[in-house]
């Protein structure tokens, strides 16, 4: 279709060839056990020094840039909450024009926009849609920790059903978050962009290879990364990686990629664990009773079945 | 210079932006600036302008993309009006706070509600404190010329601030006026390529837009204020240079006519030309009346303004926006506050006129003058055309 043959000679990142240099310095101000900054660091290791980052307002922006300190070894800009994809559009276009006019060397840097789930699912959805539709050559990374953590754990449209946040409390009239998580990868894919994928820091090589593919392919790419937040989820900080694996092993967050419209599940779970195992690792779900848990299990199974069907429809060559 | 040709002013502004050889145009349609960005898209489509044209999905994204492009080192331009400017509000402060020399045309228009696509200054008067250099054009030729000069002001390393050129919606944007274009070579001699101070460059990484903790936020605002006041001299220099090269007479505050009037009209934007006709008529009848046009609105040229009103007994300040709940319109607020600390304080009449595209005629200005001379206007402000307000 578009340019998937760009991946014909794709060399996979392995444990041995994994880039070692981190573009984000240690000493930043993330909470203990932050899965988000861990995932961000994995992205930036693959992207390397020839990269420009546009960061939406949020945890990652706050913890890495309290003037006069910065954790960033690569050029980085923060403008506002809802417009990171538009800022990245401007950067990409500016560099394109300046390179064409011979005013800067043709080094073709990676342009990566980074936003949390609030910046992506909610307030920045319009700017993201515009940038994906216009076809800018950039990668948008959504670091999804399933609520507005930076402002104090308010619900977003990424918050999972049943979860307690400070604006979706459980009470006699409510089970907590009453809506199902928005299908953000599906929305991104509906723009018919060349690359969409989900990833979890619990499967770091899968994540890093997806970053590499996204940056290899010309045009817009969307990478949706599950990002545990011990502070907001009331989970144990030392459990973040275990939870990042469990979310995949329970199929609560399946790992897949969509290349030129063809979906492939990249981590097939042969014996899925019950969602209950995942839910019990986080106190935000502690109040849920059997009926809610069964409902979550049903919808999780249904979503996986939908992905399987999409994979089957994508043809055998991607199996 | 070549001969004047009749052209819609929007298209003349687009020509100016092309001649300034911009690198990135981010554009969203909003009446009445739309013809400017339509024309620019044509220039890009047929290769007359080597730029990236980003047809963004909102005005908020138009400014955001311009910020990204400018931070990457590109000469960036956009245009807007009214609701679009209001939607940009948040990012306007960020563009100046990050010291990015973006140039924007504001086709001045009223704000909803009720929705009105017509001309007044409600939009820009709601953005007085954004930290941009704000300049007003009075006619098509000025709109064309100032749109080029704006880049030179913005990109001067003593300034490095965004600049907006205000042109009255419809009254200027959609009017066909005689425009004399300047040769490209002369523009190139006047306006060298943009040399940014800092860019998003992987070979020399910088962090832009960090968190401003309480220990640095005030200092950062002070630096912005310092740069904005510093731009006064640069605007003067650029105007002087332009006047010499291209035979115009731009000043921070300008006078119409030679007469040192005892009563002065104060105007901004295209209304100045109508006022001028009224002033000339009144002068021919022996009245001691003159007119000042505020060219540079931000930073407000305090010294130039005070010098220009020396000897006046009365100021009739025309506002094109309502500052609801205040004692005056925005321009009169500015001037009243400025005069409070002066020994010399002429009597001030503030008239809010021409909201939402309402015509203000030569006859209206003469009538305002008559009311002022007989002291029949409200001591705070008078909303012109609303009969209950005139005593």
Strands of chain B, count: 16
CATH architecture of the largest domain in chain B: 3-Layer(aba) Sandwich
Q: How many beta-strand runs of chain A?
A: 10
Q: Mind telling me the C-alpha Rg of chain B?
A: 21 Å
Using the coordinates shown, work out and report the CATH topology of chain A.
Rossmann fold
Largest interface: A-B, 48 and 45 residues
Q: Please compute the radius of gyration of chain A using only Cα atoms.
A: 19 Å
CATH-assigned homologous superfamily of chain A: Thiamin diphosphate (ThDP)-binding fold, Pyr/PP domains
Mean model confidence by pLDDT of chain A = 96
> What is the CATH C-level name of chain A?
Alpha Beta
Compute the number of structural domains of chain A.
1
Measured distance between first and last alpha carbons of chain A: 17 Å
Q: Helix- and strand-based class of chain A? A: alpha/beta
Given this structure, which CATH class of the largest domain in chain B is correct?
Answer: Alpha Beta
Task: Give the structural class of chain B.
Answer: alpha/beta
Termini separation of chain B = 51 Å
SSE pattern of chain B, N- to C-terminal:
EHEHEHEHEHEHEEHEHEEHEEHEHEHE
Low-confidence stretches of chain A: none
Mean pLDDT of chain B: 96
Characterization of this structure:
- The complex is a heterodimer of chains A (about 325) and B (about 400).
- Chain A is of the alpha/beta class and about 325 residues long.
- Chain A has a single domain, classed as Rossmann fold.
- Chain A is built from 11 helices and 10 strands.
- Chain A has an 8-stranded mixed beta sheet with strand order 2-1-3-4-8-7-9-10, with helices on both faces. In chain A, strands 5-6 form a two-stranded antiparallel sheet.
- The radius of gyration of chain A is 19 Å and the shape is globular.
- The relative contact order of chain A is 0.13.
- The model of chain A has no long low-confidence stretch (mean pLDDT about 95).
- Chain B has 2 domains: about 5-245, Rossmann fold, CATH 3.40.50.970; about 255-390, Rossmann fold (3-Layer(aba) Sandwich).
- Chain B has helices spanning about 10-20, 35-45, 60-70, 80-95, 120-125, 140-155, 185-190, 215-245, 270-285, 300-310, 330-340, 360-375; strands at about 5-10, 25, 50-55, 75-80, 105-110, 135, 165-170, 175-180, 205-210, 255, 265, 290-295, 295-300, 315-320, 345-350, 380-385.
- A 7-stranded mixed beta sheet of chain B has the order 3-2-4-5-7-6-13, with helices on both faces. A 6-stranded mixed beta sheet of chain B has the order 10-12-11-14-15-16, with helices on both faces.
- In chain B, helix 1 (about 10-20) packs across helix 2 (about 35-45), helix 1 packs parallel to helix 6 and helix 3 runs parallel beside helix 4 (about 80-95).
- The mean pLDDT of chain B is about 95.
- At the A-B interface, strand 1, strand 2, helix 3 and helix 5 of A face helix 3, helix 4 and strand 9 of B.
């Amino acid at each position: 279709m578009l340019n998937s043959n760009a991946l014909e000679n794709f060399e996979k990142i392995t444990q041995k060839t994994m880039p070692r240099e981190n573009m984000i310095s240690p000493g930043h101000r993330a909470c203990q056990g932050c899965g988000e900054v861990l995932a961000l660091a994995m992205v930036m290791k693959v992207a390397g020094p020839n990269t420009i980052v546009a960061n939406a307002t949020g945890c990652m922006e706050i913890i890495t840039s309290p003037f006069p300190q910065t954790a960033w070894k690569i050029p980085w800009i923060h403008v506002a909450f809802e417009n990171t994809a538009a800022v990245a559009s401007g950067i990409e276009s500016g560099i394109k024009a300046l390179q064409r006019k011979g005013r800067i060397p043709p080094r073709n840097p990676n342009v990566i926009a980074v936003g949390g789930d609030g910046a992506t699912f909610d307030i920045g959805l319009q700017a993201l849609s515009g940038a994906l539709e216009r076809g800018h050559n950039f990668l948008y990374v959504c670091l999804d920790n399933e609520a507005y953590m930076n402002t104090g754990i308010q619900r977003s449209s990424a918050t999972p059903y049943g979860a307690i946040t400070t604006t979706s409390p459980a009470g006699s009239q409510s089970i907590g978050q009453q809506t199902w998580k928005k299908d953000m990868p599906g929305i991104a894919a509906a723009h018919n962009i060349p690359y969409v994928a989900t990833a979890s820091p619990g499967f770091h090589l899968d994540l890093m290879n997806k970053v590499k593919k996204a940056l290899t392919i010309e045009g817009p790419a969307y990478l949706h990364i599950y990002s545990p937040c011990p502070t907001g989820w009331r989970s144990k900080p030392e459990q973040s990686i275990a939870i990042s694996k469990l979310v995949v092993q329970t199929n609560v967050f399946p790992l897949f990629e969509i290349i030129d419209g063809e979906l492939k599940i990249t981590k097939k779970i042969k014996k899925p664990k019950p969602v209950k195992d995942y839910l019990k690792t986080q106190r935000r779900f502690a109040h849920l009773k059997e009926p809610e848990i069964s409902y979550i299990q049903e919808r999780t199974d249904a979503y996986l079945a939908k992905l399987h069907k999409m994979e089957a429809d994508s043809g055998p060559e991607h199996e | 210079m070549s001969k004047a040709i009749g052209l819609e002013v929007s298209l003349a502004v687009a020509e100016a932006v092309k001649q300034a050889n911009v690198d990135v145009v981010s554009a969203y349609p909003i009446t009445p600036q739309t013809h400017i960005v339509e024309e620019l898209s044509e220039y890009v489509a047929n290769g007359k302008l080597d730029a990236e044209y980003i047809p963004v999905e909102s005005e908020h994204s138009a400014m955001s993309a311009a910020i990204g492009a400018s931070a990457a080192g590109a000469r960036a331009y956009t245009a807007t009006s009214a609701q679009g400017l209001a939607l940009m509000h948040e990012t306007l402060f960020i563009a100046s706070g990050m010291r990015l020399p973006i140039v924007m045309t504001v086709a001045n228009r009223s704000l909803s509600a009720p929705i009105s696509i017509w001309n007044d200054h409600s939009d820009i008067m709601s953005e007085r404190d954004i930290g941009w250099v704000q300049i007003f054009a009075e006619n098509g030729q000025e709109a064309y010329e100032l749109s080029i000069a704006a880049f030179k002001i913005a990109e001067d390393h003593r300034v490095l601030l965004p600049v907006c050129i205000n042109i009255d919606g419809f009254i200027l944007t959609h009017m066909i006026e005689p425009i004399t274009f300047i040769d490209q070579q002369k523009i190139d001699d006047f306006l060298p390529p943009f040399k940014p101070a800092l860019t998003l460059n992987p070979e020399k990484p910088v962090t832009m837009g960090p968190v401003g903790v309480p220990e640095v936020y005030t200092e950062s605002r002070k630096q912005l204020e310092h740069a904005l006041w510093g731009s006064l001299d640069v605007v003067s220099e650029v105007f002087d240079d332009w006047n010499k090269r291209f035979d115009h007479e731009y000043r921070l505050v300008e006078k119409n006519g030679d007469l040192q009037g005892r009563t002065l009209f104060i105007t901004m934007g295209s209304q100045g030309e109508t006022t001028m006709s009224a002033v000339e008529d009144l002068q021919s009848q022996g009245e001691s009346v003159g007119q000042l046009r505020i060219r540079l609105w931000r930073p407000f040229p305090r010294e130039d303004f005070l010098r220009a009103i020396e000897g006046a007994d009365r100021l009739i300040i025309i506002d094109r926006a309502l500052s609801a709940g205040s004692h005056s319109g925005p321009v009169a607020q500015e001037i009243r506050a400025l005069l409070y600390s002066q020994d010399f304080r002429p009597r001030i009449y503030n008239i809010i006129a021409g909201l939402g595209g309402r015509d203000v005629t030569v006859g209206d200005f003469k009538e305002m003058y008559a009311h002022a001379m007989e002291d029949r206007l409200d001591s705070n402000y008078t909303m012109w055309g609303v009969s209950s307000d005139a005593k």
